[in-house]
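Consider a protein example.
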Amino acid sequence: MVDTTDIEKKSLEAHVELCAERYRFLENKLETVEATISNVNDMVADIRTMMDEVVSKRNDQLIKWGTAIIGVLVGAIGYLLMHYVIR
């Protein structure tokens, strides 16, 4: 806390003025903190959006790879069936 000055102790008007100045300073600090928090919230939202996009692309890639692998396995099984079983 800010200690009172000798002038404040002797003059109510000086006390009121100094308190008003302190409150203005606190209001400015709070506004700065609010703006910073707002910026952080915006950055977090942007990061979340980017992460969702990355996860979606990765899932699509895994599905494509899985489909390709299954296709190759089905083709190999078909080839083996045609070559060795249906002969």
In short: The mean pLDDT is 92. The chain has two helices and no strands. The two ends are 95 Å apart (CA to CA).
